[in-house]
Amino acid sequence: MLKPYKRAEVSFELRKNIGHEGKNSEVHLAYDPNLDAEIVIKRVLKSELDVPAYFSESQLLYKSGHPNVVPILYASEDADCIYLAMPYFRRGSLNAALSKRFLTVREVIRYATHFLAGLHNVHSKGLVHFDVKPDNILLTDRDEAVLSDFGLAKQLNLNGVAEQDRSYFKMQPPEFFNDQEFDARFDIYQVGVTLYRLINGNSMFYDQFGTYGDQANFDFQQFRFDVINERFPDRAHHLEHVPARLRNVIKKCLKSDRSERYKSSTDVVSDLASIGGADLDWRYEPGMDGCRQWTKVQADREIRLRVDGTMQSHAEKRCGDGPFRRIKAFCMDSISDQEIRQFLRTDGNEETN
């Protein structure tokens, strides 16, 4: 018979600070000598925290492990802080990926399928995440998206709602301005904003948010009005390669009336799975002076469309290592947004010269 181990000692060395998650918590890269491994430690101040509730939600997530939810390796505490130990994901977050380049539609759909599976697991345990955003979606070594950071997660009560008085301001749903109790559709709204940012890039999102002013002069009333009336983020403003079906998925996630949103993350996945077409693999790159370029490489064929700041376009394609040849119909002095979308949908399927 095994004897209980009477002395258990948690030991780790905090190293690089790799992020702050609000004024009461920070994240460190750490070394655990017992595991002989690099891990991540989230340190949370106890001062304004319901400690038993925080641990109970962590315990529930630990017991309901899912491949697309970041696991908690262990939890500990001292007089001032709670420490949550998690695996170290070297690839970082989807937000970090966005800082390097624009994602293709296919990549966004693939990552969304992953983290939405994790979110479905969270909802099935009667929890609302309350903080779905690109920063809290990490990439594994297998390039799979996993949902992380349950610091704001709350258990639904017997009425199927949870109270929450904190939210990431830029991504809060309309109901947060007027209500105190919420259900899983709060997360669905944040899924919509996350998809909007993943497919269009952070710059489009932050440029829109910046129109309300800086912290000292923020126009809260206009922001509130625009969120409630489905004007922020701008549902009609997408990059040209974003297919209509994906735009519609995002629009449905962002409905101000909760009854019109998707009822579950699996419903979102179902509609994402139906998206297809020639525009899933375009890589978008903005350039200097308003120039933009879309590139697609498939098998032995490469296609490019460049549009400069005056809307003059140059389209070309090549096979293998051969020379690029102009796609005459889309080399224009002034190309319209509609013609750009036509090119991206059809691969510029015209005669070359």
Word description of this protein:
The chain has helices spanning 51-63, 94-98, 105-124, 185-200, 202-210, 220-228, 244-253, 265-273, 337-346, and strands at residues 13-20, 25-32, 37-45, 74-77, 81-87, 127-128, 137-139, 145-147, 154-155, 162-163, 181-182, 283-286, 292-298, 301-307, 313-319, 325-326. The protein is α+β, with helices and mostly antiparallel strands. The chain folds into 3 domains: 13-87, Phosphorylase Kinase, domain 1, CATH 3.30.200; 94-273, Transferase(Phosphotransferase), domain 1, CATH 1.10.510.10; 283-346, no CATH class. A 5-stranded antiparallel sheet has the order 1-2-3-5-4, covered by helices on one side. Strand 14 (301-307) and strand 15 (313-319) form a beta hairpin. The N and C termini lie far apart (82 Å).
Based on CA atoms alone, the radius of gyration comes out at 23 Å
Q: What is the number of helices? A: 9
Order of helices and strands: EEEHEEHHEEEEEEHHHHHEEEEEH
Largest sheet: 5 strands, antiparallel
Q: How many domains, in number, for the residues?
A: 3
The CATH homologous superfamily of the largest domain is termed Transferase(Phosphotransferase) domain 1
The name CATH uses for the topology of the largest domain is Transferase(Phosphotransferase), domain 1
* 3D shape: globular
Q: Helix/strand/pairing class, anyone?
A: alpha+beta
- Strand order in space, largest sheet: 1-2-3-5-4
Intertermini distance: 82 Å
In the predicted model, the low-confidence regions spanning at least 5 consecutive residues are none
Strand content: 15-25%
CATH architecture of the largest domain: Orthogonal Bundle
Q: What is the tally of beta strands?
A: 16
The proportion of residues forming helix, as a percent range, comes to 25-40%
What is the mean pLDDT? 90
Given this structure, which CATH class of the largest domain is correct?
A: Mainly Alpha
